[in-house]
Protein: Lipoprotein transmembrane
Organism: Sapientia aquatica
Amino acid sequence: MKRTFQQVLLCAAIAFAGTAHAIDVAGVKVDDTITAANTTLKLNGAGIRTKVFFKVYVASLYTTDPKTTTEAILAVPGPKQVNLTMLRDVSSDDLGSAFMAGVRKNTDKADLAKLTNQLINFGQLFSTVPELKKGDVISIEWVPADGSIMMINGKKIGSTFPDQAFFNAILKIWIGENPVDGALKTKLLGGK
């Protein structure tokens, strides 16, 4: 059966309409939607974490309803997820230390005291993976009925962290008052 050029274009348009869109950030495909806890999450923003001159990872933030302020993101109900796609090899010790420093810089002392046990357990997760390789993906997902889970390349590691304040403390590493990278915060909050 011979198809006309218009029929081929129509078939291509239909096929494209059924697929999720993605953006490219430093060579990393970042989907505009993902599914977490049986819920469709929308890309709130994505950007590159740089340290000195080095590109470390691409971060992407997903929520049920994209927002442009930290307070609004923290208040959005439902699941949330942050993904880090490594752009270089990094030791888990270095990454774990960076996570803990980011939490300390963005969480007041009273809240830190309440989260101490969860933060200790979270820090120990990094010891289960000696090194993160270029292309590895760390996902930290908040599921309201369960808590926070951490995954590396889609595989859950460690236990679930039940407190939403814990997830918010982790999220503030990137979107808190003292973010690890100001340009990345702007991108994660939907800025250009």
Residues 86 and 136 are 5 Å apart (CA to CA). The longest helix spans residues 109-125.
